[in-house]
Write a structure and sequence with these properties.
Oligomer: heterodimer
Largest sheet of chain A: 6 strands, mixed
Strand order of the largest sheet of chain A: 7-8-9-3-10-11
Low-confidence stretches of chain A: none
Radius of gyration of chain B: 25 Å
Helix content of chain A: 10-25%
Strand content of chain B: under 5%
Distance between the termini of chain B: 53 Å
Shape of chain B: globular
Mean pLDDT of chain A: 91
Strand content of chain A: 35-45%
Radius of gyration of chain A: 25 Å
Number of strands of chain B: 0
Structural class of chain B: mainly alpha
Number of helices of chain A: 8
Order of helices and strands of chain B: HHHHHHHHHHHHHHHHHHHHHHHHHHHH
Low-confidence stretches of chain B: 1-15, 292-298
């Protein structure tokens, strides 16, 4: 019984579209799980189904070992009885209530005495650095403060799980990076379980202990951030998790479990990701894995430098040769002409073209 | 595993949703009872309360063989068609001028443009008689210039023109909101390509809001079938009948109340108006879809009209003058002169006697007081009822909500005259309800029912503004439906509820036809009294009462504008 939340084969249809096509996962106690995926992948729907705001067609959802939805037994616990905390993407602060009243609502519903309500609201606000803002209305707060109020409102009655729907997407870029650190710190300090919906893989990797990558209503892959980034099982997972070079070519089996990838006349050596790959294939290599070497070596290809962009902390280059074109970073400014561009065999993943 | 207190079955029915089901059933009953009673009555040989009444088709064969019925039907179609042909193009042009151009004085014209909607048609119709009738103020002035009155107000054509001019605001409402959601880039593109303002309007703006105009056209045509006061007042002196006035005349045509014949006419009117209402519902949905497709509209820059804007302003002012200015001025003048006719010197006949007369006659005083009571307190109670129904179906993913969707269409299809008649029958038919008949409660029920669709639309529009997530946030925090409604939803639509109250106040003050059949001791209201007094030819009292009625409306309108209520 170490799982806070467990989903088993959850299916859900909205307006005739099958949004969730059988989703199963578990969230361990004190763990932070990110639901990551492109828009329309069903990540927000999962969150809403857990919260009780959507009713699945079938499957089972358990919170702390108790079923809150069971399709086979037609058992459904409505949202207000699940006792979870949810932070909405829009924050959904009640505009007619002050910060104090917004945060106190959940406690009042639980019959907490007036003195206790005041004390607990103040504690929650202090915790989130909002100590003096209790008497204000939401429209008198900045975006970052509103976000904190929304989190305080969801946390104040100590829910077993905190659900966050794209919590950072309404903040501007600078603020978002600060909030990311702050939120991660808050969650680990409180030791609560959290389910975070996001479409930003950097956010997911930074904040979560585990990532669940969704694709069209199914779980594509799940794992720790390092697993997800370094060992994607599918081309979708590989492409979603980072900045990549995508190379179309023809694959053949090479020595030592390697795969040869022929891209417009250039032979590259990579690693087959899903068993042996032959025939039409896609090679993927993270941009930061492509390096520019001083001299020829294993995995090196001579390529022409086509264009360069200065990014501040490094340079980004575009190299071409015949039909092969690839992006790479380098700390040094490079001169025009030919360069030795290296594709490490471990980092060039070869996937069958689906 | 199942916990009966914390679980609900799918589909959910019992428990927290029981009140929703009860409200839906209540609405369905409130609508179905009067309707089925009318249909039942139409198949009887006499009034339903007579033991001798037998099932028969006689009433149908009588009405359908009556030449007057067919003439009334033709007249109705002519008037409805004529007023549509006038109101739609003019309403479209007016909307274009107001929304898209730099017409001078747009801000103060806006509330005036909508004023014909709020003034009782009975008052307007009577105003036309005293201003433009054979011996009207304007007519006599014209006669002194031309030697003869160059128009006749008592004709089918005049009815169509008057109805057309007074229904321009209805078209304006829909056309202007459609135009407002259109980005001005489409017009600018036409301007750059070399089109003048007139061409832009004709070839770009109005064609782009064609669905809204089509909807407004069907709406006006439908209102033509509902219209009662204007054809009654302007048609009756020449014996010109439309369906509603035919029904009204039928009441007194035979010595005994010929309920079965009236029921047949009601069924005939409903057979025309109900399909029109269904058509409107469809068209409105299409029009809205069309608008959202084109709805960028964040930045709208008015189109400069140049010198032509003064001509446009003159046109708008002329229309306002004819549609409301002249009739209201006529009423006002008539209410303070003791007699009027050719060769009367106005200075010699000025008097306030008609107002004293109103206040000396208890039923009229009761009428004024009852009108205020039903508009303020009754209006508030109606808003509460509409809000209850709207909340009952709010965010309720259940097929039963469609019952309410369709139920509100039926009273919408009933002209007030018919709804009042049907309610009268309901009170006569169900013995326990009879004591209510002579109280304002009967009138309040009828008013609430007649304006059900309008009231629901007001409240639903307010509810639409409440973000779904605000309610979901409360739900997740642990609040049940009742708690969410009380603490989140209702406080958030406070302003919408108050606006609805002000608008319903004006609508109830203006209402005249619903109370006609319910009129009696205890249920006097000014609107219905105007009709019956007009029948006796008491022009003095009618104009004084009309002035009081319009003044009450003006107070309502002033409050509305002060509070910033959107008049749409």
């Amino acid at each position: 019984m170490n799982d806070n939340l467990k989903l088993d084969e959850v299916r859900l249809t909205l307006g005739g579209n099958e949004i969730l096509k059988g989703v199963s996962f578990a969230l361990g106690r004190g763990q932070v799980l990110a639901l990551l995926g492109p828009s329309g992948s069903g990540k927000t729907t999962i969150l809403r189904a857990v919260a009780g705001l959507e009713t699945p067609d079938s499957g089972r959802i358990e919170i702390d070992g108790k079923p809150v939805f069971d399709g086979s037994q037609k058992h459904f616990v409505p949202a207000e009885k699940r006792g979870l905390g949810l932070v909405f993407q829009s924050y959904a602060l009640w505009p007619h209530r002050t910060v104090n009243e917004n945060v106190a609502f959940g406690l009042k519903l639980r019959g907490v005495s007036k003195a206790d309500v005041e004390r607990r609201v103040q504690t929650a606000l202090d915790q989130l650095g909002l100590g003096k803002l209790g008497a204000r209305y939401p429209h008198q707060l900045s975006g970052g403060q509103q976000q904190r109020v929304a989190i305080a409102r969801a946390l104040v009655y100590e829910p077993p799980i905190l659900l966050l729907d794209e919590p950072l997407s309404n903040l501007d870029t600078k603020l978002r990076e600060e909030a990311r650190v702050w939120l991660r710190k808050l969650i680990s300090e409180l030791g609560i379980s959290a389910l975070i919906v996001t479409h930003d893989q950097v956010e997911a990797m930074a904040m979560a202990d585990r990532i669940l990558l969704l694709n069209e209503g199914r779980i594509e892959q799940s794992g720790t951030p390092t697993e997800m980034y370094a060992h994607p099982h599918t081309i979708f997972a590989a492409e979603f998790m980072g900045a990549n070079n995508r190379l179309s070519g023809v694959a053949s089996t090479g020595p030592d479990g390697r795969a040869n990838l022929k891209v417009s006349g250039t032979e590259l050596i990579g690693t087959a990701q899903a068993g042996a790959v032959t025939g039409d294939a896609i090679g993927l290599i993270r941009v930061e894995r492509v390096s520019v070497d001083k001299a020829a070596g294993p995995g090196c290809v001579e390529m022409d430098l086509v264009t360069r962009m200065y990014l501040g902390d490094r340079w980004e280059y575009l190299f071409e040769r015949d039909g092969l074109s690839v992006r790479a970073y380098d700390a040094e400014p490079l001169g025009d002409g030919r360069h030795h561009v290296r594709f490490p065999a471990d980092s060039l993943w070869v996937f069958p073209r689906s | 595993m199942k916990n009966p207190t914390s679980s609900r079955w799918i589909p959910a029915f019992a428990g927290t949703d029981a009140w929703r089901v009860a409200v839906v059933v209540g609405v369905a009953l409130a609508v179905a009872l009067p309707l089925s009673l009318v249909i039942y009555q139409s198949f009887l040989s006499g009034p339903f309360f007579l033991p001798t009444a037998k099932p028969t088709f006689d009433a149908y064969s009588f009405v359908f063989s009556d030449k007057d019925f067919w003439r009334a039907l033709r007249n109705t179609a002519f008037v409805a068609g004529g007023m549509t042909a006038i109101a739609v193009p003019l309403g479209g042009i007016l909307a274009f001028l107001m929304v898209r151009t730099d017409l001078p004085g747009r801000t103060w014209i806006e509330p005036l443009v909508l004023s014909p909607v709020f003034v009782s048609p009975m008052v307007l119709a009577f105003g036309y008689v005293v201003a433009l009738g054979p011996v009207g103020f304007v007519s006599l002035a014209a006669k002194s210039i031309f030697g003869t009155v160059p128009w006749s107000i008592y004709s089918l054509g005049a009815i169509a023109v008057v109805a057309g001019l007074t229904h321009i605001p209805h078209v304006y409402l829909y056309a202007s909101s459609a135009l407002a959601s259109l980005g001005s880039d489409v017009e600018e593109a036409a301007r750059v390509a070399g089109a003048g303002p007139l061409t832009v309007m004709r070839r770009v703006s109005l064609p782009m809001i064609a669905p809204a105009l089509l909807f407004a056209g069907v709406l006006v045509f439908f209102l033509g079938f509902e219209m009662f006061a204007i054809p009654l007042v302007l048609g009756d002196p020449e014996g010109i009948l439309v369906l509603t006035s035919y029904l009204f005349k039928l009441t007194n045509r035979f010595g005994v109340p010929s309920y079965q014949l009236m029921a047949v006419v009601v069924v005939a009117i409903l057979a025309i108006s109900l399909p029109l209402v269904l058509l409107q519902r469809r068209l409105l949905r299409d029009a809205e879809r069309y608008v959202t497709l084109k709805g960028k509209g964040a930045r709208t820059k008015p189109l400069p009209l140049g010198k032509a804007r003064w001509f446009a302003l003159a046109g708008v002012v002329l229309w306002l003058l004819v549609a409301v200015g002249i009739p209201l001025a006529g009423i006002g003048l008539r209410s303070v002169v003791s007699a009027w006719g050719e060769g009367v010197n106005i200075a010699e006949v000025l008097t306030l006697d008609h107002f004293y007369e109103v206040f000396d006659y208890p039923p009229l005083v009761h009428g004024v007081i009852n009108t205020l009571l039903i508009a303020t307190f009754g209006g508030a109670a109606s808003v509460a009822v509409y809000a209850l129904i709207a909340l009952a179906v709010h965010r309720w993913p259940h097929p039963l909500t469609r019952v309410v969707d369709y139920a509100v269409l039926i009273p919408r299809a009933m002209p007030g005259l018919i709804a009042g008649l049907a309610m009268l029958w309901v009170f006569l038919f169900f013995a326990p309800l009879r004591p209510l008949k002579a109280t304002l409660i009967s009138l309040w029920i009828a008013y609430t029912l007649v304006w059900l669709a309008y009231g629901m639309r007001l409240i639903s529009a307010a509810l639409l503004q409440v973000g779904r997530e605000l309610e979901e946030a409360a739900k997740v925090a642990g609040a049940g439906t009742g708690r969410i409604n009380r603490e989140i939803t209702i406080p958030l639509i406070r302003f919408g509820l108050m606006s609805s109250w002000v608008l319903i106040f004006m609508i109830f003050v203006r209402e005249y036809s619903t109370g006609i059949y319910l009129l009696g001791p205890g249920t006097e209201v000014t609107g219905a009294q105007l009709i019956s007094l007009w029948g006796t030819g008491a022009a003095d009292v009618v104009s004084a009462l009309s002035v009081i009625n319009v003044a009450t409306l003006a107070v309502g309108l002033a409050i509305a504008l002060r509070l910033g209520v959107r008049l749409r």
